[in-house]
Specification:
- The structure holds 3 protein chains of 3 kinds.
- Chain A is built from 7 helices and 14 strands.
- By secondary structure, chain A is of the alpha+beta class.
- Chain A has 3 domains: about 100 residues, Ubiquitin-like (UB roll); about 110 residues, Alpha-Beta Plaits (2-Layer Sandwich), CATH 3.30.70.20; about 70 residues, no CATH class.
- In chain A, the strands form 4 sheets. Chain A has a 5-stranded mixed β-sheet with strand order 2-1-5-3-4, sandwiched between helices. In chain A, strands 13-12-11-14 form a 4-stranded antiparallel β-sheet. A 3-stranded antiparallel β-sheet of chain A has the order 6-7-10.
- Chain B has 2 domains: about 80 residues, Arc Repressor Mutant, subunit A (Orthogonal Bundle), CATH 1.10.10; about 80 residues, 3-Layer(aba) Sandwich (Glutaredoxin).
- Helix content of chain B is about 40%, strand content about 10%.
- In chain B, strands 2-1-3-4 form a 4-stranded mixed β-sheet, with helices on one face.
- In chain B, helix 3 packs across helix 4.
- Chain B is elongated and about 50 Å long.
- Chain C has 3 domains: about 210 residues, NADH-ubiquinone oxidoreductase 51kDa subunit (Rossmann fold), CATH 3.40.50; about 100 residues, Ubiquitin-like (UB roll); about 100 residues, NADH-ubiquinone oxidoreductase 51kDa subunit, iron-sulphur binding domain (de novo design (two linked rop proteins), Up-down Bundle).
- Chain C contains 19 helices and 13 strands.
- In chain C, the strands form 4 sheets. Chain C has a 5-stranded mixed β-sheet.
- The radius of gyration of chain C is 22 Å and the shape is globular.
- In chain C, about 60% of the residues are buried.
- Chains B and C meet through helix 3, helix 5, helix 6 and helix 9 of B and helix 7, strand 3, strand 7, strand 13 and helix 15 of C.
- The structure holds flavin mononucleotide, iron/sulfur cluster (SF4) (2 copies) and FE2/S2 (inorganic) cluster (2 copies).
- The site of one iron/sulfur cluster has 14 residues of chain A, from helix 4.
């Protein structure tokens, strides 16, 4: 067992644990935000840089600090390591900077985005962002496209976390989409027109931390905070059948996997459960699901966010092109 | 203003969606044999390593650019998913996704060349050929491209035509080179050694 | 220019071919290493020589080799980094072009020392003509029994393959190179794990620059001790410097480390002074990624000592008043060169070459370029200059690989030392643009 101290709190962890995992074992404020790491996806993490922390002491044997901030999601702990998250002004500054970079080309179309209210980027910019950005440049714009017939891709909103790519790689038998081009014009795409049909492809929607990948069977029917998330299950031949059914009255508006407090799915679900089963009779409704994670919805912050970021009138955009 | 074309950088990124035409493409048995040799350079199970060299050969042998059909064919040869080839082909600047001219003129735009007159060479080519970077002349002879440092900064300004380097450029030299290229267009490829020969 | 080590024999006609190279003492070092020495002894000689990586970082080669995981039972790999794409750098091309066998010799000895059976030369795709040169040299070495199975009838076997890149500066970064070699996009890997433990195909791997590996032959030939006597302090030996820009004699020079910068710029056997009798304005001494220095600071340090061509002397004063030796791409600017335009030009380069994997670099390089573009074209504001400093600070140190830093440093240093030029662009855009127009027209003659 290794002893690690994060923001003055100590925890004993197994060798090979990352700083982020150790922080999650402590819980609360010491946990750095993670936009690209996903514990259930091999190889994920390291890319968004929101989880940067300071290592004030590398290990008991080597008490020197690490020269640069490190990505907590992909740095394994050492025995006696001392880590600073919010207690380091340097980390707070860097995180602000990262949020600014992530928002630089992000459209801030939250008022018309399906993910609003359950968006990790929205939460992140609330908690760590600056009041305003220094950028006056026009934002980069991509056309809206489809990834298969059930999933819509708003590339403008994508933060290139690669989670959906790892999902397709690790959950489906044949990956059909990936990261194309490079630098600030790289994009998620299929390159050629083709249907993404694999039965587990819908999980890409749930792993997406922003509203880049959204469920076409749900779009614009309602804002998530009007809906009641209910735990539900069914006897499914292909997946566990444990889902969250998002209901309004007696109607199911959409089905997603069950997410934990870090916004990660507890289990991946199949496309049939997600896209086809919208009849309450298909499901055994267990009861309300509590959003454990501290999000913009639960903190009742959404109104403030909206004011800051309304940039386009809602009319017109609300009408789905199809 | 010089170099306007570099600067007009729109904020709209509209990568086109490509179509699979469904043409049958294949290497000749001879090239195929060499490619099999090439794959053997990498350990068993790591045949994907041969992707870059094979794409170079494919681009040269199968039409001068990487069409979807060509990429799918290469994916089949290596037993990988087509998307893995698309991801790679879109990453590297030497792979062309669209039909190119007979000669692809790639002019270095980076600092050391720029301070020795590189911007002017590009301007000159624009005028002589009547096209902007990224375009091909109507006769299909020349495609003009702007590239980053070619590793020949001491002999700048530099351009690469297909695989040959042309160094110490002046507008006069460029005219002469264009004339020579036009004259030789009907002959075989300007460069006598192909990727296949280089590798196998 | 006597006392050449790496480029020794370059003037001999036919030295590119095996026979001439062999007749002039070539491959003697391979025989010495394989016949008379153990791998550990070769390692020790390289460590003793004080050789430092010539790819840019200047990390001691012997130390790097000592990190290689020798306990693993997986195969080990040696990768020769011939991606040479750093603007201003063209020394590896020169070396491979003129003395391909010097590289092959170095690869054989290094592989022997590291217990490597397969070695790949990753060369940038644009250098296609060099692939043929190298393949020919490899074939000749095979033919003469220096490659293949049981080299010189010992137990040591080695194959060398040339592998082309396809146009991506980032593939010079060692882990991006490994990804590229595995047939993937050139996205740098997240470290740890380091290549010494998990490199190519997850096996222990050493990545070294062409020049570094080519130097191993001469080191074994003359002995590490002897080699370490060359140079100055911890900058031992000789280094290839590729000089370009506004000088009379651009080209590749082998210098003994410790040569005064002033001599390098003005001596007739090197750059031979500034072209067209103009004055020296600034120098980027180690490839476009290192900080730019104005004439006074490149010729002497802030303390008033003569600046030398060595790792230590060039970085004297850190980033405030110093720079780095980097890859040895020595770019000289004369009095007329516009620093703002050049900074914008390089920012464009880094934007184009960012792999796009991590957010600070992907977004930050594009942002800096847009702001610099505005300033250069007379649409900038005073606050933009500070904005650039802030963006560069926010990128630096927060990225996956050093390309982020490499993009940030040129901008930060140009503003640090030439702030007045940026201000000039903001305050008097019309005059500045006119001056540039005239300058570029002057190239037309
Ligand atoms: C963005 C970037 C580009 C690089 N390009 C090159 C290159 O073209 N050639 C090279 O030898 N090293 C390059 N390097 C350095 C390599 O990562 C690595 O340090 C080097 O190959 C190690 O060899 P050495 O120890 O012999 O210097 C680059 C590094 C970075 C971060
Ligand atoms: S689409 Fe979503 S999941 Fe995929 S890379 Fe973009 S942000 Fe990540
Ligand atoms: S710093 Fe730039 S080049 Fe390096 S990994 Fe990040 S995005 Fe890619
Ligand atoms: S969560 Fe660690 S870098 Fe993205
Ligand atoms: S800058 Fe043009 S070749 Fe290097």
């Amino acid at each position: 067992m290794f002893k690690v101290t994060i923001d003055n709190q100590q925890v004993d962890v197994e060798e090979g644990t990352t700083i982020l995992q150790a922080a999650r074992m402590i819980g609360g404020k010491v946990v750095p935000p993670a936009m690209c790491y996903y514990s259930k996806l091999r190889g994920s993490g390291g890319k968004c840089r929101t989880c940067l922390v300071k290592v004030a002491q590398s290990s008991a044997k080597d008490p020197r600090p690490m020269p640069k901030l490190v990505a907590s999601c992909s740095t394994p702990v050492q025995d006696g390591m001392v880590v600073q998250n919010l207690t380091s002004p340097e980390v707070v500054e860097a995180r602000k900077a990262i949020v600014e970079f992530l928002l630089l080309n992000h459209p801030l179309d939250c008022p018309v985005c399906d993910q609003a209210g359950e968006c990790d980027l929205q939460d992140l910019s609330f908690r760590y962002g600056m009041e305003e950005t220094g950028s006056e440049e026009d934002r980069r714009e991509f056309p809206v496209t489809d990834i298969g017939d059930k999933i819509k891709l708003h590339m403008n909103r994508c933060i290139l976390c690669y989670r959906c790519v790892y999902t397709a790689d690790q959950l489906t038998d044949k990956r059909l989409h990936g990261v194309l081009y490079r630098g600030d014009v790289s994009e998620i795409g299929t390159f050629i027109q083709q249907a993404v049909t694999n039965n587990f492809s819908g999980n890409m929607i749930d792993v997406c931390p922003v509203g880049a990948l959204t469920d076409k069977t749900f779009r614009f029917k309602s804002r998530v905070w009007f809906l009641n998330p209910m735990n539900a299950h069914r006897d499914c031949p292909s997946c566990s059948g444990n889902v969250t059914a998002w209901m309004f009255g007696n109607e199911i508006y959409r089905v997603t996997g069950r997410k934990n407090q870090y916004g990660e799915l507890e289990e991946f679900i199949c496309n049939e459960c997600r896209f086809e089963k919208k009849d309450p009779g298909d499901w055994v409704i267990e009861g309300p699901r509590h959003i454990k994670r501290q999000s913009v919805i639960s903190a009742n912050h959404y109104e403030r966010m909206k004011k800051q970021s309304v940039i386009k009138p809602i009319e017109g955009i609300m009408e789905d092109p199809e | 203003m010089l170099n306007r074309y570099i600067m007009e950088q729109g904020n709209i990124v509209n990568h086109k969606l490509f179509v699979k035409e469904g043409k049958t493409v294949a290497f000749s048995p001879e090239v195929l044999g060499k490619i099999q040799q090439l794959i053997l350079r990498y350990p068993e199970g790591q045949q994907k390593s041969a992707l870059l060299p094979i794409l170079h050969i494919a681009q040269e042998e199968l039409g001068g650019y990487l069409s979807v059909d060509v990429m799918d064919y290469v994916a089949g040869l290596l037993g990988i998913q087509p998307i893995e080839v698309y991801e790679v082909a879109t990453f590297y600047s030497m792979f062309y996704l669209d039909k190119m001219g007979h000669y692809v003129i790639e002019v270095c735009r980076t600092g050391p060349c720029a301070i020795s007159g590189g911007e002017m060479i590009m301007e000159h080519l624009r005028h002589s050929l009547g096209i902007s970077p990224g375009e091909t002349t109507p006769d299909g002879l020349f495609t003009l491209k702007e590239v980053e440092c070619l590793g020949s900064c001491g002999t700048g300004p530099v351009m690469q035509v297909n695989t040959g380097y042309y160094e110490h450029l002046t507008p006069g030299r460029v005219d002469k080179i264009l004339d020579d290229l036009r004259e030789n267009a009907n002959k075989d490829k300007p460069d006598d050694s192909t990727w296949v020969e280089k590798f196998c | 220019m006597g006392g050449k080590i790496l480029l020794a024999g370059i003037e001999i006609p036919g030295i590119r071919g095996f026979d001439v190279y062999r007749a002039n003492g070539g491959y003697a070092a391979v025989e010495k290493a394989l016949r008379e020495m153990t791998p550990a002894q070769v390692n020790a000689e390289v460590t003793r020589s004080g050789l430092r990586g010539r790819g840019g970082a200047g990390f001691p080669t012997g130390l790097k080799w000592s990190f290689l995981d020798r306990k693993s039972d997986k195969p080990r790999y040696l990768i020769c980094n011939a991606d040479e794409s750093e603007p201003g750098t063209f020394k590896d091309r020169y070396l491979m072009h003129h003395l391909p066998h010097r590289l092959i010799e170095g690869l054989i000895i290094s592989s022997f020392a590291l217990g490597v059976k397969t070695c790949y030369i990753y060369i940038r795709g644009e250098f296609k003509y060099l692939v043929g040169v190298l393949e020919k040299a490899i074939a000749e070495a095979h033919h003469h029994g220096y490659l293949g199975e049981h080299i010189l009838k010992t137990d040591f076997s080695l194959n060398i393959y040339v592998h082309p890149g396809a146009g991506a500066y980032i593939c010079g970064e060692e882990t991006a190179l490994l990804e590229s070699l595995e047939g993937k996009r050139g996205n740098p890997r997240i470290k740890p794990p380091f290549p010494a433990f998990k490199g190519l195909y997850g096996c222990p791997t050493v990545v070294n620059n062409v020049e570094t590996l080519a130097t191993v032959g001469p080191i074994i030939g003359m002995g590490g001790e002897e080699y370490s006597k060359l140079g100055k302090g911890k900058s031992t030996g000789t280094k290839l410097i590729s000089a370009c820009g506004n000088i009379n004699n651009p080209g590749v020079y082998e210098i003994e480390l410790g040569l005064p910068v002033e001599d390098f710029i003005y001596a007739p056997e090197y750059c031979n002074g500034i072209a067209n009798d103009k004055y020296l304005k600034a120098v980027i001494p180690g490839g476009s990624s290192v900080p730019i220095l104005p004439a006074d600071l490149i010729l002497s340090t802030a303390k008033g000592e003569k600046r030398l061509m060595s790792y230590e002397s060039l970085s004297e004063g850190d980033f405030l008043t110093g720079t780095m030796l980097g890859s040895g791409g020595f770019i000289v600017f004369d009095e007329d060169a516009c620093i703002v335009r050049n900074t914008w030009n390089l920012a464009h380069f880094y934007r184009h070459e960012s792999c796009g994997q991590c957010s600070p670099c992907r977004e930050g390089t594009g942002w800096m370029e847009k702001v610099l573009y505005k300033i250069e074209h007379g649409q900038g504001k005073m606050s933009d200059i500070d904005l650039l400093v802030r963006i560069s600070k926010n990128i630096e140190g927060n990225t996956i690989c050093p390309l982020g830093d490499a993009a940030a440093w040129p901008v930060a240093s140009a503003i640090r030392h030439f702030r007045h030029e940026f201000e000039e662009h903001v305050l008097h855009p019309a005059e500045v643009l006119e001056k540039e127009r005239r300058l570029s027209a002057s190239f037309a003659v």
